[in-house]
Amino acid sequence: MLMYMEPDKLSSVPIAAALQRTRFLVGARHAVQFPADTGWEVAFAGRSNAGKSSALNAVAGMRSLARTSRTPGRTREVNFFVVDEARRVVDLPGYGFARASDAERRRWARTVERYLQERRSLKGLVLVMDVRHPLTAFDERFLVWCHELRLAVHILLTKADKLSNNRARASLLKTRRHDVVTRGQVTVQLFSARQRQGLPALQKHLAGWLGLPV
Questions:
Q1: pLDDT at 109 (0 to 100)
Q2: How do residues 118-168 score in pLDDT, each as one tens digit?
Q3: What is the spatial distance between Cα 50 and Cα 77, in angstroms, rounded to a whole number?
Q4: Burial (Cβ within 10 Å: 0-12, 13-18, ≥19) of residue 7
Q5: What is the pLDDT of residues 60-77, one digit of tens each?
Q6: pLDDT tier at 214, thresholds 50, 70, 90
Q7: What domains are there in the chain, each with its CATH number?
Q8: Contact 143/113 with Cβ under 8 angstroms?
């Protein structure tokens, strides 16, 4: 059983160790299946095949917390993971494309929309983008929606190891300067799950949203 730890007790636990307690809780196909809306939550979203599941696994220090696949669109539910009884990490279905019917995609959209609009415990959203193809039309629309919801967003430019340092840095700066990014509560960083690049910075960001001692 996962035990809730009071903030004073958590102060002696490193951020990485606290996040490595993360375990799967439930996969929700409909909003009525969401767990109780209390405590703190951080959600991960992104275009299919951008590296969202790999980022989640890296954060938790596990290979298979979230399912990874070469087939885009494998996440078909809103998956809730518990850090402790008061804190959760949420994996949203990837957007962009998936081998599913139009009716299935509409169901995903309704469920995700309700989650983002109504979830009081949601403190921030990590938006995962492939550093080689950031700010697609889907990403831009999603950022505009988050801005309208006044939701804080941390952009994770994944697969940074696929580019040279100079090209990765150029993509980072270009993303930071984009008008859809500068208008809202948005931060941006480079990340590589394979090389653990940017992992401490991401864990520290999550800790701030989840109320973990930094």
A1: 85
A2: 999 999 999 999 999 999 999 999 999 999 999 999 999 999 999 999 999
A3: 17
A4: exposed
A5: 988 778 764 444 445 578
A6: low
A7: 7-210 (3.40.50.300)
A8: no
Q: In what order do the strands lie in the sheet with 23-28?
A: 23-28, 78-84, 87-91, 40-46, 122-130, 153-158, 186-190
**What is the DSSP code string of 191-212?**
-BTTTTBTHHHHHHHHHHHHT-
The backbone torsions φ and ψ at residue 147, rounded to the nearest 5 degrees and listed phi first, read -65, -40
* Rounded Cα gap, residues 135 and 146, in angstroms: 14
Q: How far apart are CA 95 and CA 75, in angstroms?
A: 10
**Complete DSSP assignment for 37-97:** S-SEEEEEEEBTTSSHHHHHHHHHT-SSSS---SSS----SEEEEEEETTEEEEEPPPBS-
- Residues 84 and 4 sit within 8 Å (Cβ to Cβ): yes
Whether 134 contacts 171, CB under 8 Å: yes
Report how far residue 158's alpha carbon sits from residue 130's, in angstroms, rounded to the nearest whole number: 5
Calculate the average pLDDT of the chain: 87
β-pairing verdict for 186-190 and 122-130: unpaired
Q: Please report the sign of the dihedral spanned by the C-alpha atoms of residue 11, residue 12, residue 16, residue 19.
A: negative
Q: Tokens 């939550």 label which residue?
A: 41
